[in-house]
Design a protein that fits this description.
By secondary structure, the protein is mainly alpha-helical. It has 23 helices and five strands. The chain has helices at 17-29, 41-46, 51-69, 85-96, 110-125, 155-168, 186-189, 191-194, 209-218, 223-236, 241-244, 257-262, 267-277, 288-309, 332-340, 346-358, 363-376, 381-391, 397-408, 423-430, 435-440, 462-466, 476-491, and strands spanning 3-6, 33-39, 75-79, 101-105, 129-133. Strands 3-2-1-4-5 form a five-stranded parallel beta sheet, sandwiched between helices. The chain is globular and about 75 Å long. Bound molecules: flavin-adenine dinucleotide. Flavin-adenine dinucleotide binds at residues 245, 253-257, 260-261, 296-297, 299-300, 303, 363, 366-367, 370, 388, 392, 394-396, 399-400, 402-404, 407.
Length: 494
């Protein structure tokens, strides 16, 4: 007999609701706790998980296994190519281990919800209780309803309700304890599980040796790095977050998204530690930088609530269905130029090259690059959304879909369609000295002064041409006019 915890996007021991509940149950029943993780190539492919993220997950599993082993808890890892086989295999394993209790944390994407719903039923049929706990969001999707009894679709009132709800239910920010040490003899009994293979790589999701080394040093895996980063950010930068977060060249944000996406850090822990650092220990007053940062973590919750309530956004549909009729372009050359960072708009190119090199992009860069694809190039935003997922180390369906919907104006609580970022103004405002551009577009390093933002017009082009920097693939004003006309047409407006 045993109790089982199935890890998915919660690859940590600290503050893990399901892991702790499983450990507690095991202790109450006087049986060992077994944990498991299933690696599935097809699952990674279906979810467009980037090679950098797959590598991060595999590296994290090693850290997790080592930490769990200190408590004599095995982490059993199995590789299954076909995702359809996952539920059946879970049932087999649970039976094989003689367990009557399976725990896991909820995931809100449609496929995952369906899979878990049928697994709960199948478990019941064989006398196994499956508990799916709420862990990934600070406030569980569905718990916040507007006065009219509906799910919020605008962030600001939702956020006010989110803060009030946490204040009314302070236990939400109570952190779960780490699991208990396993029973004597568990290590011996499950020796084989401790030794199961964690693959070094997954077919079609491989990194080159150079990339592996680069990503390893840029993004150390596991929850210890998450904690180190969180504490450092809170100690050193959170106070100035509001004032500096939009500056592209500064390291003023937390870079914790990779950990929040893989679950090496819980959103609860992030909010709790930030709140505790706030002198009034609340979410609605005190240090502005702290409140702003917490409100960004809340965006993550918001987009997951939206996903759970309107699952059709998982099916390639815009949140705002009235935007379905916009006629998008499918120009392969322009998409190539955008994705490679060769549009002739330095700030867009810098952002895309940052993504291609780091698997991460500054939030302002994400907004500029996404808006450029959807509005200047009028390319179908879903192609850009896909490209981001395939390259981000922090790829998260709800946040990525939300960010693209915001930028393309097709999503929940978006920027209005007629608001079209001017890349030149964005560049001057958020990278005034051109440091971000120079870092990521090295061929422009020799361009002096303001010409860095617009080397062909302001620098008259000679210098830029010499160093091989491309000319603009589209004109700003023409693109803007075309975009307004196309959106209006799609929306049936005069
Ligand atoms: P910080 O500024 O330190 O914020 C702390 C945390 O709050 C982040 O780690 C993240 O978990 C959350 N957060 C911050 N801003 C947002 C936001 N706008 N929406 C949702 N959560 C937010 N974030 C992802 O985690 N995964 C994605 O796939 C993703 N795709 C995006 C695509 C587009 C087009 C846009 C505009 C934004 C996207 N974001 C995504 C949101 C945001 O850009 C990143 O979370 C942020 O840049 C990560 O850096 P950080 O950890 O330093 O953030």
């Amino acid at each position: 007999n045993a109790v089982v915890h199935w890890f998915r996007c919660d690859l940590r021991m600290r503050d893990n609701r399901s892991l702790y509940a499983a450990s507690k149950k095991a202790r109450e029943n006087g049986v060992p706790l077994i944990t498991m993780y299933i690696v599935s190539q097809q699952d990674f492919e279906a979810h467009l998980v980037s090679p950098a993220r797959v590598d991060f997950i595999l590296r994290t599993l090693r850290v997790l296994r080592e930490d769990l082993a200190k408590l004599d808890i095995p982490l059993y890892v199995e590789t299954l190519e076909k995702r359809k086989k996952i539920p059946g295999r879970i049932l087999e394993l649970v039976k094989e281990w003689g367990s009557d209790h399976l725990f896991t944390n909820a995931e809100y994407e449609v496929d995952e919800l369906r899979r878990d719903a049928s697994l709960v039923r199948e478990c019941l049929e064989i006398g196994v209780a499956m508990d799916v706990l709420s862990d990934t969001c600070v406030v569980k999707p569905g718990d916040l309803v507007s006065k009219s009894g509906t799910q919020y679709s605008v962030y600001t009132p939702w956020y006010r309700a989110w803060v009030a709800y946490i204040h009314e239910n302070p236990l939400l920010l109570d952190l779960s304890e780490a699991p208990n040490k396993n029973l004597n003899g568990a290590r011996q009994k499950y020796l084989k599980l401790f030794e199961s293979t964690i693959p070094n790589e997954v077919e079609h999701k491989k990194l080159s040796d150079e990339e592996t080394e680069r990503f390893c040093s840029m993004w150390p895996a596991g929850e210890h790095d998450a904690h180190r980063r969180l504490i450092k950010f809170i100690d050193e930068r959170i106070g100035g977050y509001k004032a500096h977060r939009n500056n592209l060249s500064e390291q003023s944000t937390s870079s914790l998204s990779v950990h929040l996406a893989s679950g090496t850090l819980s959103a609860r822990t992030a909010v709790r530690m930030a709140r505790d650092h706030n002198r009034i220990k609340r979410l609605d007053g005190g240090v502005e930088g702290i409140l702003t940062w917490i409100s960004e973590i809340a965006w993550r919750d918001f987009y997951k609530h939206v996903l759970a309530h309107w699952p059709y956004i998982c099916m390639n549909k815009p949140f705002k269905l009235e935007y379905t009729n916009i006629e998008w372009e499918y120009n392969q050359d322009q998409f190539e130029a955008w994705s490679k960072g060769r549009t002739g708009y330095p700030v867009v190119d810098a952002a895309m090259r940052q993504l291609n090199s780091c698997g991460w992009m500054h939030n302002r860069g994400r907004m500029i690059a996404a808006s450029f694809l959807a509005k200047h190039l009028l390319l179908d935003w879903r192609i850009g959304e896909r490209y981001f997922m395939e390259h981000l180390i922090d790829g998260d369906f709800a946040s990525n879909n939300g960010g693209w919907g915001f930028s393309a104006s097709t999503g929940v609580d978006p920027q209005p369609y007629f608001r079209i970022f001017n890349p030149l103004l964005q560049s001057e405002k958020f990278d005034p000295e051109g440091e971000y551009i120079k870092r990521w577009v090295p061929e422009l390093r020799g361009i002096a002064g303001k010409a860095i933002h617009d080397p062909y017009d302001r620098g008259k082009g000679a210098e830029a041409k010499k160093c091989g920097y491309p000319e603009r693939i589209v004109d700003h004003k023409e693109s803007r006019d075309r975009c307004l006309a196309r959106y209006k047409e799609g929306l049936g407006r005069k």
